[in-house]
Specification:
It is built from two helices and five strands. By secondary structure, the chain is an alpha+beta fold. It has one domain. The chain has a five-stranded antiparallel beta sheet. A hairpin with a 7-residue loop joins strand 2 and strand 3. The longest helix is centred in the C-terminal third of the chain and has 9 residues.
């Protein structure tokens, strides 16, 4: 099960992220209206971010690398605009293997 700070790789091409892209879980949230109610918001190394259900994770072959970034474990997602700015500022570089 993925947790906040879990580092993942994408198994298939997805919209704006290619297969093999590295990502980090920046939010675990409750999808109240869904039977499968847990969702994971993942930021990928190219700056693309999206929310995923358990079905999505399986279908897209999202692989948990077993790595957990301890800094990101304390991250608090507030909105996409802020996430994007923090990505541009390099806040996620270590977790995403960019430095």
């Amino acid at each position: 099960m993925l947790n906040l700070g879990s580092v993942v790789t994408l198994g298939v091409d997805l919209h704006h992220a290619p297969a093999g892209a590295k990502g980090v879980v920046v939010e675990v949230y409750n999808r109240h209206e869904m039977a499968d109610n847990t969702g994971w918001f993942i930021l990928f190394d190219n700056g693309f971010a999206d929310g995923f259900s358990a079905f999505d994770l399986e279908h897209l072959k999202v692989h948990d690398t077993g790595e957990v970034d301890q800094v990101i474990r304390r991250y608090r997602f507030t909105n996409v605009s802020r996430l994007h700015q923090e990505y541009l500022d390099g806040w996620f570089d270590l977790a995403l293997g960019k430095r």
